Amino acid sequence: MLAKRQVELSLFAGFVAEAILTTTSIDSTALTSGRRPIPAAIAVVIRSNHVLLVKRANPPDKGRWGFPGGKIDFGESVMQAAQRELLEETSICGQAQQVFTAVDVFDQKPTGELCQHFLLVAVLCRYLSGEPMGGDDALEAQWFPIDTLNSSELALSHDVTEVAREGARLAQSLESITP
Length: 179
Prior knowledge:
Blueprint: H1 2-23, H2 28-32, E1 38-47, E2 50-56, E3 65-66, E4 69-71, H3 78-90, E5 93-108, E6 114-129, E7 138-145, H4 160-177
Parallel strand pairs: 1-6
Antiparallel strand pairs: 1-2, 1-4, 2-3, 2-7, 5-6
């Protein structure tokens, strides 16, 4: 009975894999080429209904406003990476509190060919000190009212508004349970 169940599960897994390959735009050679998404941390800092954003200096999203962040160094936790990137890109000291979502970013050539795939892990960080100033690979850093992100003329990176709102809800809930 156990062997029959294992065969059924194996067949099911094969059908799922085939369905995924045939119903998505993923190049099947990418699955066997050894290329993997690049993990990165983004620091989401909420203060007085404002979110801290940076204007990106490099691809992906060069010239767009997004969260301070970058690649996670070998041996570094996602929480440490968020705090480090926050300080490097904005001069803001913060304390990483909680991972709360992840966002896929696909850097593509104009032809649509995939160059890079980043997996951005969003970390809510509590503001501790400092004034925003662009540094490292951020051209600028400033606070923006969360409720104006959708209606603003800002060139925003993918999912910034949604992640900012989710971070604000989490920050509010954490504040309500802090003694």
